[in-house]
Every structure is written in structure tokens, then in C-alpha cells.
Amino acid sequence: MNETDAAETRAVLRNDVRFWKFVCSNTNTGHFEASGSEPAFMQTKID
Q1: Is the pLDDT reported for residue 41 higher than 80?
Q2: 41 in Cβ contact with 22 (< 8 Å)
Q3: Between residues 3 and 16, which one has the greater pLDDT?
Q4: Which residue among 30, 33, 37, 47 is the one 20 to 30 A from 20 at the CA level?
Q5: Does 32 score more than 70 pLDDT?
Q6: What is the secondary structure of 1-47 as a DSSP string?
Q7: Is the whole-model pTM more than 0.70?
């Protein structure tokens, strides 16, 4: 991802009005892979 695309992505994700939901899977290599995302308009508590 180049710097311009990264800046646009940060601008979308840094939003004080709503939250984002990500669909992720465990890669078993120490990180998760996001396969999708969508805006969420209410906070969801994760226990």
C-alpha cells in the first residue's frame, strides 16, 4: 500500500461517529487476516 492509499484508509477508519466491524481469521502465524469490514453504528462490547 502506498502512502496516499494509507492516508485515505486512516482517514476513513479514524472516525469519531461510528465503529468498524472486521471479519478476521487466525493465520496461526501470530497475526489475523481481515477478509472484510463494514461500518457499525453502535458500540459492541467484546468480553
Answers
A1: no
A2: no
A3: 3
A4: 30
A5: yes
A6: --HHHHHHHHHHH--SS-EEEEEEEE-SSSSEEEEEEEEESS-----
A7: no
